[in-house]
Automatic annotation (TrEMBL):
<keyword id="KW-0472">Membrane</keyword>
<keyword id="KW-0812">Transmembrane</keyword>
<feature type="transmembrane region" description="Helical">
    <location>
        <begin position="127"/>
        <end position="145"/>
    </location>
</feature>
<keyword id="KW-1133">Transmembrane helix</keyword>
<dbReference type="InterPro" id="IPR006750">
    <property type="entry name" value="YdcZ"/>
</dbReference>
<feature type="transmembrane region" description="Helical">
    <location>
        <begin position="69"/>
        <end position="88"/>
    </location>
</feature>
<feature type="transmembrane region" description="Helical">
    <location>
        <begin position="37"/>
        <end position="57"/>
    </location>
</feature>
<protein>
    <submittedName>
        <fullName>Amidophosphoribosyltransferase</fullName>
    </submittedName>
</protein>
<dbReference type="GO" id="GO:0005886">
    <property type="term" value="C:plasma membrane"/>
</dbReference>
<dbReference type="GO" id="GO:0016757">
    <property type="term" value="F:glycosyltransferase activity"/>
</dbReference>
<keyword id="KW-0808">Transferase</keyword>
<keyword id="KW-0328">Glycosyltransferase</keyword>
<dbReference type="Pfam" id="PF04657">
    <property type="entry name" value="DMT_YdcZ"/>
</dbReference>
<feature type="transmembrane region" description="Helical">
    <location>
        <begin position="94"/>
        <end position="115"/>
    </location>
</feature>
Length: 148
């Protein structure tokens, strides 16, 4: 897979649109079955089977067998994703897709600033610059404007 920054930016922007679509689709699923928690479970289950099939087809199936031997805290990613999927499908009917997505991005940016600053998870620390803080503040302003 190409590693050029432009390709990475385009790919993640497309996937960002998937996140915007995922929440209302999952919210509709929740309304259809009358349970947001069950809808999140179904969504994660479908995703699990797709990723399992892709891992096997791609030849990464044996790597799955190494999961029991990794540090246990590394497995929290799945739990974080599950909480995200449920909270997004729950919030969309209350906040709307735009505000939900904007607040989601704001939360990501605040966490990203802290992760970058402290170099969590083995990353190289990066300074929290005024420019980066202003970027997060502009998203916060966008969240307020999208709602009020």
């Amino acid at each position: 897979m190409p590693t050029a920054p432009l390709f990475a930016a385009i790919l993640i922007a497309v996937c960002g649109s998937f996140i915007a679509m995922q929440a209302p689709i999952n919210a509709a699923l929740g309304r259809s079955i009358d349970s947001t928690l069950a809808a999140a479970t179904i969504s994660f289950g479908v995703g699990f089977f797709i990723l399992l099939a892709l891992s096997i087809v791609h030849g990464d199936g044996p790597a799955l067998a190494r999961a029991p031997f990794v540090p246990k805290f590394l497995l929290i990613g799945g739990a974080l994703g599950a909480v995200y999927v449920w909270s997004a499908l729950w919030a969309v009917p209350i906040l709307g897709v735009l505000t939900t997505t904007t607040v989601l991005i704001l939360g990501q940016m605040i966490a990203a600033l802290l992760i970058d600053h402290f170099g969590f998870f083995g990353l190289t620390p990066r300074d929290v610059s005024l420019q980066r803080v202003l970027a997060a503040m502009l998203v916060a302003a966008g969240a307020v404007l999208s709602r009020y």
